[in-house]
Queue: 2 jobs
Job 1
Amino acid sequence: MIERCKAGDPGAFAEMVLQSQKKVFNIAYRMLGNAEEAKDMAQEVFLSVFESIKDLKEEVKFNAWLTQITLNHCRNRWKYLKRRQYFRTDSLDDPVETEDGSVPKAIYDPADNPEIHLEKKMIQRLVQRGLLELTEEQRELVVLRDLQGFSYEEIGESLRLPEGTIKSKLHRARMNLKEILERSSH
Amino acid sequence: MDCETARDRFSSLWERELSPLEEKSLKDHLASCPACGKEFEQFEKTMGWLRSVEEVEVPEGFLSELQKKIESRKGGLPGAEPGGRGFHIPPSFKLPAQAAAMVVVVFLVLYLTKMVPIDGIRTRVTPPIPFPLSAERKSETMLTQKETEKERGALEAGRPKGGEQVHPPVPIQKELEEASAPPLKAESKKAEAPASSVGAVGYKAVDSNEAAKGKPLSPEPGRAAREQVIKERSAAASESPREIVLRVADREKVISPLLELVKRFGGEVVATEGDAFLASLPTESFSEFEKELAGFSSSGKTDLFPAKKDAAERSRFEEGVKKEEGSQKSQGRAKLAAEGGNRSMIRIRLVEK
């Protein structure tokens, strides 16, 4: 598929986007804390991929390369938003503004239990806010490892850091997040 | 195991990376140390929360929007590369182009500052006055300065405000002094009357004359005019008008015959001001003219004043002359300049009894 993308096959590119969009969008959303910004940024990531995939030499490292592009875009976007003091965090289940007024987003809840749903929602918000209080590097590590489930090897390839460094930095990030969540949940 | 070491291994314990021995040792510490035990509980809770965070779904239409963006970039500006975000100028061309643009701007500014006199530049080259001026010359110079300031004010009216304050245009003054120095010296011997305002009139006349002839203005429009002013002024000063006071019963009745008389003697009225006329007459016919003029006077005689005797009145008259229409003045002064020394200036003042 990557071969065909490099050759300029639009079908292969669409296939690649469908395979990777969830990962890219989720990293962007957790890094920026805003769904709209995350969507725009994820599309920018794929535009970059579209424009530069022909230069990718090692196809096997496509995922690490894609993660690098995503994180670079996130860093740039974060700086841009920070300069404009844009720290608003929204949630995917925030009400949606429509022509008929504000309506709640339809979120599928398997438990269909309002209490569980509310608690989940609260935890999601707490975690997202806590993530945004971390440093950018710590947030990247937590998002990749604990939210996206990347292996240390994958993280090492994307961030170009040795495994030992990743582990120690990740531990510090987790302990920081623990402190933040303790403070905010009291 | 101390508390710090224990807390450093929370992540390893959570990820089951510790050896069985290390794990047992840490668990023993957590069981015996309530503070560390509580810390680990919080850590586990945090990790649980993190792991409970679900992935979010990609918004609908993500791919189609992306494809539209790709299409719009493909059909972007001509010259845009697929990797570019719009018109792309290579840096190898961009820098020299920017440098060239800067040079053009600098030259443009220099050119404009040369076109429009700037005081800041002039004040740097202030020369000492080359020769002592008499009191009359000083006042004359001051008047000339005022004239040039007026002119500059008109020029600078079109320039943006906020610049430097207007200072006396020293280099121009220098030009004036240098250009006028020899005639002024000669003039001071010939005539005592300064006739400074006449000079100002002459200056204006020359300017409008030039404009009337359709001559294009030089890059320094004031300069030629000022030089002309100097010439005019020295010429006018050398032929200080005689003044005749005509005592009449009815001023209005006298005016038209008076004008005719001037014409009859080959002269012409150069300027008028209320009760006074400045006329130019052939020198040889002056005495005849004076006799004829006496006939206009109700008392049958005229009072003849040399110019220097009534300096105050003279200056008042010259003030009035200044207010005259430009065309009238310019024509009169131009003719005067053309005819030179064969003619005499006479000022006729009508005084009603």
Note: The mean pLDDT of chain B is 65.
Job 2
Amino acid sequence: MIILVVLLFISITLLGSNLRRRQPVSLAENAALTLLSPFQEAVEWAVMSVYGVWDRYIYLVDLRDENARLRTMSDKLAFENLLLVERLKSYQRLDSLLTFPSLDETPFEAAQVIGRDPTDRSKVLILNKGAKNGIAANMPVVTHRGLVGRIVSAGWSSSKTLLITDIRSAVDGIAQETRDSLVAVGFNSPTLEVKYLSFNSKAKNGDIVISSGLGGIFPKGLLIGVLENVAPVSGGLFLSAQLRPTEDFGRLEEALILKRLPLEDQKPGDQR
Amino acid sequence: MRLAIYAVALTLTFVAQTTFFHFTRGAAPWPDLALILLVYGSLRMGKIGGVKLGLAAGFAEDMLSYGVLGGNTCAMSLIGLGMGKLREDIISDSITSRALFTATATCVNAFIYSALSRIFTDQAAFPSIGTHVLSCAAVNVLFALPVMGVMEWAEEKIMRFSDANARGKYNAPPLD
């Protein structure tokens, strides 16, 4: 009987904290993250070393063909890069004229993925940077391939990132070509569900979707993914579609944390 | 000593669950080793041990995961209590009961967590709970038997070594 009372008390205390902010357990959360992070880093290092030996010294089939293909691609990309640099310079000139806040000026912290969610009920990454590196909740996490998610909890030396594919995650986006607005909602699966894409939209499969900046957490212009299975719904006001993230979260090893907080989380004197 | 064994096992479980399994790169679902350890602990130690282990495993899972806070603590403590009580009063520890308990615990865990998620966050915990539960139960049962076997072997060896040092004889677990 006493056990049941104790169990109920602990569970109700924890469950009750869902009704307000999660401050009361932040110490325990920090302790759990901090305690496990050295082990996670050690396992990550060991496994990646084994992968490294396999990838670099053993698994070299088709290396010659791949090398030739990559050289061709590299030449092509160098040319494209040249054109893009020119475009970027012209964009920067116009941008400075209009004084838009630029993402280039946002400070960031490179972080390594040292762990993931212990259950498959949520999509969480554990990164090896925490409060001691200036990381705080609600900072966006990105890679060069696009949006990854946002920090939901920062321990002293590590932090938890909620992926955009998590069922509790939603990102406001824009189809880059047609400028139609939409909301990309996580579904605990590799793709996101697209909601509120107007029935009159000309968006099609393969179109790129970027963040709109309207949610307040993610800055505008970050690549989210590519549209798939765009189809009208009979009698519906919106198109049905899915969004495949450009980043493969299953293989993610490093990410960048943008040190940028939403307005409501900023303290007086913080730089955006 | 037994407390230390389970604490180490639980730490190793969470290190494996947050790192190693994910290197299988997309081969989900992964086995829930914490739940397997909880079922094993409840079968070995009864309801008191089950509740303690469930509380520790659930709380650690809540701290490392994201979602309804306390959901795992509540679900796993209740599973520990229920499994331990059944073990004390009705069922003996055997391969069949281990497999059956693991499958049942997986389902109960998912349903309790799902209900709490609906109540406290008004969000679904899974896109499709039926498919999720079936696939997870199958994977957990597959892993439960070898994992519990290894755990039993390790526990027995360590306890025998520790008791031999202390009193010169091995004390069997209370429920055996």
Note: Chain B has a mean pLDDT of 83.
